[in-house]
Design brief:
This is AMOP domain-containing protein. Pfam families: AMOP. Residues 1-23 are annotated as: Disordered. The chain is an alpha+beta fold. The chain has one domain. The chain contains 3 helices and 4 strands. The protein has helices at residues 4-23, 109-127, 135-144; strands at residues 44-45, 66-71, 78-83, 100-101. The protein has a 4-stranded antiparallel beta sheet with strand order 1-2-3-4. Strand 2 and strand 3 form a beta hairpin. Helix 2 packs across helix 3 (135-144). The protein is globular and about 40 Å long. The relative contact order is 0.18.
C-alpha cells in the first residue's frame, strides 16, 4: 500500500521545483568576456565560480569559466547561469552549465544552510561518489534541476 502522505509531499515538491524553473529570470545568452560583477535584472557573480579566481574555481561546474546567480526572492528559488571563457552561455550541465536551485545561497547563514541541504546535498547524492560520477542518477537530478534557457538580451 502506498503512503499517500509521502506521495503527496513528493508531488508537491516536484511541482514546486517545476514552478521554480518557471519563475526564474532567463539570463542573457552572452556576457562580456571581461565578466562584469553584476548583470541587468539582479544577476551577480557566483562566488563559487568567479572568473577572477580562475583556475581555482568552478568545482561544481567543470567547464565553466564563470557563473552568475539570480534569486527570485531572498529565500529562492534561485538559479545559476554559467559561461565559457568567451562569455557564451553553457546550456549543457555536463559541460559546466548552471542549474535551478530550490533555495538561494545568498543571504544569512541559515539561508545558506537551506541551500546546502536542498540543493548541494541532492547534487552530491545523485551525481558524485568517491570514485566517479553517476550518469543515470545525475541525469535525473538535471531533469529536476535544469540548466534553463537564455535570452538574447543586453547583459549590462
Amino acid at each position: 500500500m502506498m503512503n499517500t502522505l509521502s506521495h503527496s509531499s513528493e508531488v508537491e515538491e516536484s511541482n514546486e521545483e517545476n514552478n521554480a524553473s518557471d519563475r526564474v529570470l532567463k539570463p542573457p545568452c552572452q556576457v562580456l568576456s571581461t565578466f562584469p560583477r553584476q548583470l541587468n535584472e539582479g544577476w551577480v557573480v557566483d562566488v563559487d565560480c568567479d572568473p577572477l579566481k580562475q583556475p581555482k574555481t568552478c568545482d561544481y561546474h567543470k567547464g565553466a569559466y564563470g557563473c552568475y546567480r539570480f534569486a527570485y526572492s531572498n529565500t529562492g528559488p534561485g538559479a545559476q547561469a554559467c559561461y565559457d571563457k568567451n562569455g557564451n552561455f553553457i546550456s549543457d550541465p555536463w559541460k559546466g552549465g548552471g542549474t535551478v536551485d530550490k533555495e538561494t545561497s545568498s543571504g544569512d547563514l541559515i539561508q545558506s544552510a537551506k541551500h546546502v541541504a536542498c540543493d548541494v546535498v541532492s547534487y552530491y547524492s545523485c551525481c558524485q561518489t568517491f570514485f566517479s560520477p553517476q550518469p543515470y542518477t545525475c541525469n535525473l537530478y538535471y531533469e529536476k534541476r535544469p540548466t534553463g534557457q537564455c535570452e538574447n538580451k543586453t547583459a549590462i
